Amino acid sequence: xxxxxxxxxxxxxxxxxxxxxxxxxxxxxxxxxxxxxxxxxxxxxxxxxxxxxxxxxxxxxxxxxxxxxxxxxxxxxxxxxxxxxxxxxxxxxxxxxxxxxxxxxxxxxxxxxxxxxxxxxxxxxxxxxxxxxxxxxxxxxxxxxxxxxxxxxxxxxxxxxxxxxxxxxxxxxxxxxxxxxxxxxxxxxxxxxxxxxxxxxxxxxxxxxxxxxxxxxxxxxxxxxxxxxxxxxxxxxxxxxxxxxxxxxxxxxxxxxxxxxxxxxxxxxxxxxxxxxxxxxxxxxxxxxxxxxxxxxxxxxxxxxxxxxxxxxxxxxxxxxxxxxxxxxxxxxxxxxxxxxxxxxxxxxxxxxxxxxxxxxxxxxxxxxxxxxxxxxxxxxxxxxxxxxxxxxxxxxxxxxxxxxxxxxxxxxxxxxxxxxxxxxxxxxxxxxxxx
Length: 436
Prior knowledge:
This protein has 436 residues and is mainly alpha-helical. 76% of the residues lie in helices and 2% in strands. The protein is elongated.
């Protein structure tokens, strides 16, 4: 599976994790908008890992004869016929995928980052598998075959045209002609020819033959990261987890920043019962994913989650602050981002900065109990008992509204420690007893 999140991403790449939003409707609307904006680039990243049989793989510096140029125009015509149907199918899947992501993200809002990203990965994998199952209509396949045939007449060594014409023949059940075309492709460029063979076998559900074809493709081009992923996924489906781990490891060797290679390897380790290795891989995947999201700065929610991740894992405060800063830069009304950054400053002992962030979070969301509570702790530290008790009292009232009686009682204890004579202690206790 490949998000390139992940998504995905994820995924991504997203939701209500670790706090209370000032306006949940705004967040969900934002998520939908950000998801739409990133889907295209995410899919494009995924598609670059697929079998290299499109015209985009032609060297731009290649000098073409007039006939070869005309051949490529016919190739493009065939692609347009395909894309018209494919884009409609993709649009349907994208809309459904976005809805599934929202549901999963809501479900995992109180879980771990690894669980969240794994949920997004599963959605992305299912989405990718369904894309692979796309089947053009017979009429379109026939029209495409005519275009590819014209391209081959003009350029007899046009390997991509043989690959795709062979695929079209396979789609309409003419396997003899498909085999002839793919054999010619193998003769011209083994890596592309065998890759095309592998796709056809995989679409037919013949994993054994698909693996053999992909293996030959890798022998011809051992640096094809996408091919290791494809073969690794098939090994995983067959239950051959050791070989799957080998392929996912090669993906990491060739592309150390491929977060979903780590996730796929983690799944294989889990299947083998090697959970410590799996957890280590998932952590590394999340680290790569969030670091990239901070740099991209395309989603305030993902940048916020990056801040949470780096805060909770190894206390990487510098990267955590970068995540929260980017989230705030993108959306200055993001109360949770101010609160998250305030927590980092608090842990670092930079109490004035933490105080400013908690205050800002409260301005944006006056129901933010945790922000009142943490700000009260700073006022307590600063020997400002009256102000501290005011915040503890307000936090206690808000916790009661959320049916968090234990947290409200903690506020009472803190007030007793800060100023035993505060009238707010009895006042809050009465509120607590009223709610019994």
